[in-house]
Write a structure and sequence with these properties.
The chain is 46% helix and 15% strand. The chain is an alpha+beta fold. The strands form 3 sheets. A two-stranded antiparallel ribbon has the order 1-2. It has a two-stranded antiparallel sheet with strand order 3-4.
Length: 158
């Protein structure tokens, strides 16, 4: 049984009709025990994703394609939104490192899933990603205030 509860000044109450129905089926006096998690603000998560999408679009607009020499000849690597998001997360300092038997080290972006990152940690990530976007993607073409206003305008249309 999964219950979604919301805290009000009068106690915990069902957050949705499914939870309300589930609670009504329980006999009076039923004791429930469980592990509870606080959900992050989904609107703030959407704002983060709007920031990343905007940064990706601006990166594509302002930067030149990169050519890599391979044994088969020059190759232009594909630009990928998810890889870009991982890169931003790593540049913002939210990553884990792993060592391998050959002595190599892999850096991997931390998960931004609701269950994996607290609201406070996510707010710090958001702030640091803005810094990375301004410095490493836009190279000073836009101020922090202008970037935030642009993101808010995008969110009004979604």
């Amino acid at each position: 049984m999964k219950l979604a509860l919301v805290k009000t000044p009068h106690g915990l109450f069902p957050h949705d009709p499914e939870t309300e129905a589930e609670i009504r089926r329980l006999p009076v006096g039923t004791l429930l025990e469980g592990k509870f998690t606080r959900h992050r603000n989904p609107r703030f998560h959407r704002k983060f994703m709007a920031l990343v999408k905007l940064a990706f679009d601006l990166w594509e607009q302002y930067s030149q394609p990169v050519t890599v020499e391979t044994p088969q000849g020059p190759v232009v690597p594909e630009r990928n939104f998810n890889e870009f998001r991982y890169w931003l997360t790593i540049k913002a300092g939210f990553y884990d490192t792993f060592a391998y038997p050959d002595g190599s080290v892999q850096v991997r972006a931390r998960s931004i899933r609701f269950a994996k990152m607290s609201e406070e940690e996510f707010q710090t990530l958001f702030s640091r990603v803005i810094d990375v976007v301004l410095h490493d993607v836009l190279h000073g073409r836009m101020s922090r205030t202008a970037l935030d206003q642009h993101i808010n305008r995008i969110l009004m249309f979604t």
